[in-house]
């Protein structure tokens, strides 16, 4: 698989396919001619080796000069599987503090349940490790300031794991919006729909799940204490005690993409509704949620997640402006330009013939007819990422580049807090049954 550089893309023009509106997003290969010295090698550890954690690690170790040396997880089976995948020499433990005490680890991936993100990230940075923290960065609003302050005081790198911020697809949409391609932005509509049990977080529970193979007290952490429950342990996203519902799992991606493309810090107020419509299995997180947000920049954002959508999983964002739309769909960006007429038009057919003639004559004095030969730029263009492109790879590449150079990351703790804080407004609005307000600059509830 060839990996491609987002920054190189930004310097390159789209290459038009002959005779069509299709354009490939052009890039130079990332790794061409690149060598990594022994001193540049980065040794990482994984904290939380579930589905997302092992998936993240798979992408991380593809980056040249990166090696996994340790894993922490509360289920013995996952620790054993990590050795199967990455080698018997990988150190494994239930207690991530053993990992943080090691001097040979440069950075950690925090892919725990949401309620452990803050503590694991803070502990890692305090121990001198750089951190890649899965989204949502926070589980509670109080988590954000502590993570931001720890990153500042320890001077450690922390990047939040919403990979769209590193995507060449989203970079192209950002470029188009900034160029004025669709005029003045007034609305963003985004969705993430699913229609499967696994999509609705009904993850498989291993047959040996028990208090002996699972460190239940460590998993619970700050959550309310209950007897061992394998469903809570392996399907934790379904409960607010450990996860943040569809808002923290999926809305946060849509916020990250929206904020990256528009340059906004976030919404000023929100209202949300939804409920458990189909997956009535004891969970307390909605499977359908709709939310509306106001932005000080003058546009509105509409989001929805539906886990019972009756079709295939789909994700998309539509940016609507005064002169067209930009749609992100799969691996492509679709620009549809329909510029507004330069004149307002008239409706005079119900007037007397004399009045119609007089009105149109004065109208044409103000709005003369344009020459019939004048061309207007309208129509549809589609920009497509190269086959095999992965923004997950690019996001880790950007993270490790920052670890090596100490330059700012593409998605720092403040960006992560603003995206997650905005997403969690949905949960807060539903809980209160009310409109809620947020200051995206100070990152505080109002």
Summarize the structure.
The chain has 446 residues and is α/β, with parallel strands linked by helices. It has 13 helices and 18 strands. The protein has helices at 6-11, 51-60, 76-86, 96-100, 117-126, 143-154, 168-178, 216-220, 230-234, 245-262, 353-366, 391-405, 413-432; strands spanning 15-16, 22-24, 42-47, 66-72, 91-93, 107-110, 130-134, 158-161, 185-193, 269-275, 288-294, 300-306, 314-321, 324-329, 332-337, 379-384, 436-439, 444-445.
What characteristic shape results from the CA principal axes? elongated
Can you summarize the main beta sheet? 12 strands, mixed
**Strand adjacency order, main sheet:** 1-2-16-15-14-13-9-12-11-10-17-18
Spans where pLDDT lies below 50 across 5 or more residues = 1-20
Q: What distance lies between the first and last C-alpha atoms, to the nearest angstrom?
A: 47 Å
Q: What oligomeric state best describes the polypeptide chains here? A: single chain
Mean pLDDT: 92
What Rg, in angstroms, do the CA atoms define? 25 Å
Summing up helix and strand content along with how strands pair, one would put the structural category as alpha/beta
What share of residues is helical? 25-40%
Q: What portion of the residues fall into strands of 2 or more residues?
A: 15-25%
Question: What is the number of helices?
Answer: 13
In total, how many beta strands?
18
Protein name: Gfo/Idh/MocA family oxidoreductase
Domain GFO/IDH/MocA-like oxidoreductase: 234-327
Organism: Edaphobacter paludis
GO molecular function: nucleotide binding
